[in-house]
Amino acid sequence: MYRQNGLSLVELMIAITLGLILMGGVIQLFLSSRESFQVQQSTSGIQESGRLASEFINRDLRMAGFTGFRGRAPLIKNKLASSTYKTDYENGISVFESKDAKVAELGALNDTRVLVIRGVVDGVGSELIKKAELTKLTVGLVSTEAKACKDGGDKINGICKGDTLMISDYQKTIVFQASNITLKGTALEISYVGTWGGDLFTYDEYFMPGARVSVARTVTYFIKEGTSKRSSLFQKINDEQSVELLEGVSNMAVKFNRSKTSSSYEDATGKMDGLWVQKPTEHNPVISVKLELLVEGFSDNVLEEKQVYDFDGKTVTATDRRLRNVFSTTVALRNQLP
């Protein structure tokens, strides 16, 4: 019987060729699976970030300009000493370019927009139980949180000393700062900076029992480089530290329409004055806002070609092969509807 002691060169070449063909198929399958995984991972990450970002912003947008008592008040008087984009409570919504000096402190990325929402965003308040006095308001006790304020004091009715508050009735609203809060039995006494109230002849500063006192908040959304060095959506409430909410959100666009032009939208950027109430006598408030969010995936080189997408009314060609998606939603401002 013949015994084979080795392989001929031809047999070896055939074996190597077959092995390379099989290995090439395995590698191709691996690369294809890897690409599919990257696309799916990017898609799921984009969907999650876009959905959550829209939910966060839309929730606050619906409460924009709420004064604690009812919807849009024809008269909003601001008694605060300082005036910044955060204290412009006469306007429930403002949209700025990131380069605008008013919002420079945020450090937002260039060529992005900053959305500012003001009002009683959480919808919580307490009722006035005595006529407004010259330097003091008295409201019923609703809740007490021990040592919940920054200075270690108790938070009563959600209020801390120094908070910006709103008092509102059917016809008017005053924005003021609480200089002190004092719990007296089942009532809370709120002292305020300046003197007003108690004078029936100064009607726009006169409030009777039943008016509501609430904490006013300014919620700011902007795009900034996050901890992962990617663009992220940040949220800042009043003067608190800004918080990184979601990675991958790279820009936003905001448009609005008024009750008399409900079928047409216009860019809200830079139109701070009058965006909330154009003129009280015209009864032509902003009634809805259209929000667009541009969200990008984490991984580059996911797509075979650079993506072409529509954002803010423009067709854009991406500079890389990262996957992107635009999330668009329209929000009715329930406190603005006439």
Assign an overall shape. Answer: elongated
Radius of gyration: 29 Å
Number of domains: 2
Q: How does the major sheet shape up?
A: 7 strands, mixed
Task: State the end-to-end CA separation.
Answer: 104 Å
Percentage of residues in helical conformation: 10-25%
* Mean pLDDT across residues: 85
Output the structural class: alpha+beta
Strand portion:
25-35%
Order of helices and strands: HEEEEEEEEEEEEEEEEEEEE
Topology (SSEs and partners):
Elements: H1 9-62, E1 76-78, E2 93-97, E3 113-119, E4 125-127, E5 136-140, E6 144-145, E7 155-156, E8 164-168, E9 173-184, E10 187-192, E11 212-215, E12 217-225, E13 231-237, E14 243-247, E15 249-258, E16 266-267, E17 286-296, E18 308-311, E19 314-317, E20 324-332
Parallel strand pairs: 1-9
Antiparallel strand pairs: 2-3, 3-12, 4-11, 5-10, 6-7, 8-9, 8-11, 9-10, 12-13, 13-14, 15-16, 15-17, 17-20, 18-19
Description:
The protein is of the alpha+beta class. It has 2 domains: about 180 residues, no CATH class; about 90 residues, Elongation Factor Tu (Ef-tu), domain 3, CATH 2.40.30. Helices cover about 15% and strands about 35% of the residues. The chain has 1 helix and 20 strands. Strands 1, 4, 5, 8, 9, 10 and 11 form a 7-stranded mixed β-sheet that branches. The protein has a 5-stranded antiparallel β-sheet with strand order 2-3-12-13-14, with helices on one face. The radius of gyration is 29 Å and the shape is elongated. The mean pLDDT is about 85.
